[in-house]
Specification:
364 residues, 15-stranded antiparallel beta sheet, four-stranded antiparallel beta sheet
């Protein structure tokens, strides 16, 4: 009865079954609840059904665009059918539409942490709502333009809502990059679906072992780390010898979004051919993962986005890339150049060069 490949077979009163590609196809809860899941050829969830005591309780069907982003869903819960369409800005959900109503989402710059939502119902005035989030960008409250709380929740450790204290309007954002589906209880997480009851994804990591040896695992510590795309990567932490429970977070000196930026693709391709590893220890530094620890050891805190820091590193990287494109840099000069960018970033973090939030100490 061996369980292969980190697949969860039983947990409490729940049993799980998978297909040959490692996708969750069946989840039984207790004696009476059965959920089934169906996928397309790219392992994307396209249909889910929930039966309770043999009676069909809910159905969900889903469609995606060529980039893998979910663009539509049709759900039926207890006989009530709802259709939604989703518009995207890059990999962030920008707009949610249903017949006669739409919601526009605004986020922190360079982040998936929500700031506000603008609702527009047909024939009515716009309604503005503000998100109030925790240290990792998870919504705790939503208030209207007058400051009245219209939605409020508390969570369990891995993101399942424990209690909806106020639920005057629908609010489905959860961990950064996640959207709650009432018909399944799962969170849509851009490139995968996440089960908040067990803190695991229901399909294997699309980037394979680059995300770690556990292909179903979420971020190691859900109070510090986030995984807005469903691509959990702990490679940097492993390279640096991260210790679980010490309160420190792994920070890329040259941020991942810069290493993956199309403008720098040729430069980093060349660097990788010479042994550069963006997840290597030389490109990392431990930063405090909580506000109290940041103040205690006098280093910038790292638990959310840091657009100002990324902009500063980008300026240095842009100069190096411009020199690289001239063709006048030798291989050794290019390696030394990227090393200088890393050293500048490390020394800047340790000396207080970069801006931090004055209240929390978080790197901006």
């Amino acid at each position: 009865d061996h369980v292969k490949d980190n697949r969860l077979k039983r947990w409490r009163d729940q049993e799980y079954a998978y297909d040959a590609w490692g996708n969750l196809i069946e989840k039984r809860s207790g004696m009476g609840k059965l959920q089934t899941f169906r996928y397309d050829c790219e392992n994307r969830l396209v249909r889910a059904e929930t039966l309770v005591n043999g009676k069909l309780e809910s159905i969900g069907s889903y469609r995606y665009d060529s980039l893998g982003r979910r663009v539509a869903k049709v759900s039926e819960v207890n006989g009530k059918t709802e259709q939604k369409h989703f518009l995207w800005q890059g990999l962030r959900m920008l707009r949610e539409e249903r017949p006669g109503q739409s919601s526009l989402y605004l986020y922190e710059p360079g982040s998936y942490a929500p700031l506000a939502r603008v609702d527009q119902a047909e024939g009515e005035e716009q309604q503005l709502y503000y998100f109030h989030t925790d240290q990792i960008g998870t919504p705790l409250e939503m208030t209207d333009a007058d400051g009245s709380i219209v939605w409020q929740a508390t969570y369990k450790a891995w993101g399942a809502v424990e209690k909806l204290a106020v639920n005057d309007i629908e609010q489905n954002l959860r961990f950064q990059g996640q959207y709650f589906d009432d018909e399944t209880g799962l969170h849509y997480n851009t490139f995968r679906y996440y089960d908040p009851e067990v803190g695991r994804f229901v399909t294997q990591d699309p980037i394979g072992l680059l995300g770690g040896v556990n292909l179903y695992g979420y971020a190691i510590n859900s109070t510090v780390w986030i995984d807005p795309l469903g691509w959990c990567s702990s490679a940097l932490g492993r390279s640096m010898g991260a210790k679980s429970g010490d309160g420190m977070a792994n920070h890329h000196l040259i941020p991942e979004e810069l290493m993956k930026a199309p403008a720098y693709s040729q430069m980093f391709k060349k660097l990788k051919s010479m042994g550069f590893n963006g997840d290597g220890a030389s490109n990392g530094i431990f930063l405090p993962g909580k506000s109290d620890l940041a103040k205690q050891i006098d280093l910038p805190g790292h638990w959310s986005s840091h657009s100002a820091y990324t902009k500063a590193v980008n300026a240095e990287l842009s100069n190096l890339n411009a020199a690289f494109k001239t063709g006048r840099l030798s291989d050794s000069q290019l390696v030394l150049g990227v090393g200088r960018v890393q050293r500048m970033a490390r020394e800047g973090l340790e000396s207080g060069k970069y801006a931090v939030d004055k209240i929390t100490g978080r790197l901006l």
